[in-house]
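4.2 Preliminary Data

To establish feasibility before requesting continued support, the project team ran the inverse folding procedure on a target of 123 residues. The structure was first converted into the token representation described in Section 3, and no sequence information of any kind was made available to the design step. The complete token record follows.
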């Protein structure tokens, strides 16, 4: 879902930052509400955390198809593997716990993409 939004919506940089902040702030609140209503820790019906993390992963990069594809693959890897501190952060309670591991995965993805940009000149 985030991939499609980022590809199809012609965000300015300020618009992308605003989108990221709104999704993260409102998503944290919404995830908390849904988690409490369902009585389940980080239920699969919550996907706003994925949108926030994926958006963070490309926040300062051009939203081209190659960048989005590589970011998506890296983000999914980091989201599944959950390297430290994501593996511990997801245990936090409420909406913050739902969101933080995906934000960490997004940050790791962004750092790898920025390293590729620095070392290889890509993207």
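Position-by-position output of the design step:
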């Amino acid at each position: 879902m985030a991939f499609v939004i980022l590809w199809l919506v012609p965000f300015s940089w300020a618009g992308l930052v605003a989108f990221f902040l709104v999704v993260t702030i409102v998503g944290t609140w919404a995830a908390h509400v849904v988690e409490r209503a369902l009585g389940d820790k980080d239920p699969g019906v919550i996907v706003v955390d994925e949108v926030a993390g994926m958006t963070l992963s490309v926040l300062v990069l051009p939203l081209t198809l190659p960048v989005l594809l590589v970011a998506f693959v890296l983000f999914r890897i980091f989201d599944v593997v959950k390297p430290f501190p994501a593996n511990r952060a997801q245990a936090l309670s409420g909406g913050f716990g739902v969101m933080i591991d995906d934000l960490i995965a997004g940050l790791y993805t962004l750092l790898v993409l920025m390293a590729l940009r620095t070392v290889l000149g890509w993207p």
